[in-house]
Amino acid sequence: MDTGRQRVSVVTVCAFVMTPVANATTAAEIRYNKKHAQTRNTVERAFGLLKMRFRCLHKTGGCLQSPPQGCAKIISACTVLHNICIINAIPAPSPTDEFDDDNSHHPAETVGGDDHSARKGAQIRSNLIDRRFSN
Prior knowledge:
Blueprint: E1 2-3, E2 6-12, H1 27-53, H2 68-87, E3 106-110, H3 116-132
């Protein structure tokens, strides 16, 4: 769904993916959504840096045609190499016009009606909000 400048992707709530609360009404839910957005921004900036330095991770540089376990090893190797670059003060490549990595999408919550995983995920998120974001 296009909302002007931001893309909204639909992410189903499940036990291992924390999503923002759609139509947050309580102060705790609003605080949770704010922290979720800040955390997501930090993670996306880290992904962006890795994609700039290692083009194999970006869609314009090809794609990882490996099974998930192999992709996880490649991504882990890239993060280790990136940290070595940081330690040795090797600057990250500067972004170019042809490298447009738009990570401005934000997931909208959907909860599958009878999906046990979605209900479990929503309950886990609710417990987290109660424990960490309520006064």
